[in-house]
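Reviewers of the previous submission asked for a worked example of the structure-prediction workflow described in the proposal, so we include one complete record here. The input consisted solely of the amino acid sequence. No template or homolog information was supplied to the procedure at any stage.
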Amino acid sequence: MDAANINRYAEHLAEAEKSGKGVAPITSLEPNVSVEEAYRIQVATIERKVAAGARIVGKKIGLTSLAMQTLLGVDQPDYGQLLDSMAVENNGEISCRKTIHPRVEAEIAFVLKRDLIGPRVTTHDVLLATDCVFPALEIVDSRIADWKIKLQDTIADNASSGFYVLGGRPVKPDQVDLTLAGMALYKNGELMNTGVGAAALGNPATCVAWLANKLGEFGLPLKAGEVILSGALSAAIDAKPGDSFTARIAHLGAVGVRFVSE
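From that input alone, the workflow returned the following structure tokens.
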């Protein structure tokens, strides 16, 4: 796919975000689009936002559960970029006017204290390079109409990212067994689902190691100070105006957000 088409599909997704209306899947417009080309569309989309003043502050990892990988017919996760404009304060509000099809996931977030670059980054390396971990909510959203996505669609769409929230308090990674950290996700005070750290590739730190090694293929590091969302610990829950969400993760604390119409 040439640069003109890469930019055309980046504009296709940008128009959906601007209008607040989902658009046709890229895989329906370009059936032979490859994973590599989808990442090129993602890069073009992010470059547009950075040129407009946004700043990259981290990464998100998606498709970390076997169920989601099976659903999309893949055998590894994907990733997207976190921008400063995506950050929401703990217990803050998100206007549904800024979303299309929002869903909420509970995750464990890592903040790095030193760079990580693959290949051969291990789970242990990640833990040593991590300054602290937090409970997090990721608000996933799709610019593709009705979430009718294939792998290439979600990759091109910055791994279906929307917003993220960090909560709790900073906890050093050696103070908690992340694989056993239990999670409970509530919507409007009602328990919706539960999960555990091991739901993300057996260990959330393993997800971060995967990302470091994947980026290492392109000579790119995970940078000190970056926030890394390591992947959902349970199924995503639909959100609409008036809904509030709280996730509690053992030893890490709570994180919350509320959706408003304006």
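The radius of gyration is 17 Å. We consider this example representative of the routine output the project will generate in years two and three.
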